[in-house]
Amino acid sequence: MNGEDIVTEKEVEDVYQRLDRETSQAGYNLNPDTEVTMELVRGLLVNEKRYGYWACPCRLASGNYHNDLDIICPCDYRDKDVTEYGSCYCGLYVSKAVVKGEQKVDPIPERRPPPEERVQITQREGTLSLPVWRCRVCGYLCARDEPPEVCPICKAKKERFERFM
Amino acid sequence: MKMNHVEGDDKGHVMLYALSTCVWCKKTKRLLNDLHAEYYYVDADLLHGEEREGVMNEIKQWNPKCSFPTLVVNNRTCIVGYKEDEIRGLLK
Ligand code: SF4
To answer: Over the stretch B4-32, which tens digit does the pLDDT of each residue have?
Structure first.
């Protein structure tokens, strides 16, 4: 069974509206092609039911939360892909140029490295008075004993932070 | 492993490795349908355990990144991603 049937139109619509609002407040843009965007939101909700988190709809999640952290939406690769290609791997997030109709959303190469080459999130020791933590999703930096529960900028969870300095 | 079969015209052996939630995979399936090509497909996210591993090993031979969609035609040519023109060219 593929679980698609257990996500209702209403759920998709509600989450889409919320995401659209939050995204523009944070300076990001959803793909204006709502057919694609809704399909991706549906995929995220299906994955939430399957795995318990928003695993990227266009990548194969392992089902192991820790191993899938880098591909929980928004993934670690979104910002680089939007900058370089005008959209994230799935085409959910796009550049301003795409919104304005100056750039097209085309399939892009997979930036996520194969399992052997993936770097684990680092927790190394430093010599500063406080460690500096970096959100791997949006790049937000903060100096404090521990990363915040959620990123104040992009709402990524604590586990998405790495020790930066 | 359960392979899905879609009837159509014989344009060679067409095997599509896909994910049920992926929009690019959906576009690829739609394109194959529009081209009336006979094809086989498997949605790797719906498989578990050994079955999934088996499919991933198959994909790896063609596409080391194991990304989706991966399309293999006649056990010879592999197209990674929804490359519409390339797919159309191959399955004329
Ligand atoms: S940001 Fe785009 S590519 Fe990354 S997980 Fe979300 S939908 Fe997938």
So the answer is: 999 999 999 999 999 999 999 999 999 99
Q: Which residue's C-alpha comes closest to atom 1 of ligand 1?
A: A74
Cα nearest neighbour of A91 on chain B: B23
Q: Which residues of B touch A50 (CB under 8 A)?
A: 45
- Residues A60, B45 contacting (CB under 8 angstroms): yes
**H-only helix segments in A52-115:** 65-68, 78-85, 96-99
Q: What is the ipTM of this complex?
A: 0.93
State whether B43 and A36 contact (CB < 8 Å).
no
pTM over 0.80: yes
Which positions ≥6 away from A110 have C-beta within 8 Å?
Answer: A59, A89, B65, B67
Nearest CA to CA, how far is A132 from chain B (Å)? 32
Q: Rounded CA gap, A50 and A44, in Å?
A: 10
Best mutation site among A71, A95, A155 for ligand 1 pocket (most ligand atoms within 8 Å of CB):
A71
**How does DSSP classify residue A150?**
B
Long-range contacts of residues A27-33, Cβ cutoff 8 Å, at least 24 apart: A28/A74, A28/A82, A28/A93, A29/A93, A29/A94, A29/A95, A29/A96, A29/A98, A29/A99, A30/A92, A30/A93, A30/A94, A31/A87, A31/A91, A31/A92, A31/A93, A31/A94, A31/A98, A31/A105, A32/A94, A32/A98, A32/A99, A33/A91, A33/A105
How many C-beta atoms lie closer than 10 Å to residue B17's C-beta? 26
Q: Do B22 and A58 touch (CB under 8 A)?
A: yes
